Amino acid sequence: MNIPGTPMISRRGALIVGAAAAAAVSTTAPAAAAPADASAPAVPLTRVTLKVNGEAHTLELDTRTTLLDALREHLHLTGTKKGCDHGQCGACTVIVDGRRINACLTLAVMHEGAQVTTIEGLGTPQRMHPLQAAFVKHDGYQCGYCTPGQICSAVAVLDEIKRGVPSHVSPDLTARPLLSAEELRERMSGNICRCGAYSNILDAITEVAGSRA
Questions:
Q1: Hey, what's the signal peptide range on this chain (predicted)?
Q2: What pTM does this model have?
Q3: CATH number, domain at 53?
Q4: 210 falls in which pLDDT band (50, 70, 90)?
């Protein structure tokens, strides 16, 4: 209905004016920011000392920090890789107190005083560990992402066999396991190579295992 004395406004014009007004209000009147929750607890931090590659490090960490993130983000030892972050690929394998573990599945605070060996602690380009040299010789890598975990795992595998630790395929649980391809494949099965360099990896480990037998 038109009120006498006022200009005629079409329905379309009214909609345009209304939309413009709404846009102006939304840009000139920002929503109030949510007040900070003063009662929120602080991030829990604790000190943990790790002996990594022969050197002691004392870190102040969120108690939820994984060993993997402590190594990569706090100690900047990025040789250890974050792959699946669910303990399924083995890219994060390191050696803790002589045993190989998936660093993504354990908290750093669980390893107070532990001896941790990463790929950086096994050897250098100038003085490579025998398994590092064998991986190069046998082309046991392609993209190389899984290689640090593969090598750390292989070092621990040879130590397991030397100590007589059986695997699921060991025929005699009371005798020293054989240095067989079947044993090595079983023990390395937790380390995934998406490039498929498994035969070359096996050749590298077999060579080093044979030299130590």
A1: 1-33
A2: 0.79
A3: 3.10.20.30
A4: confident
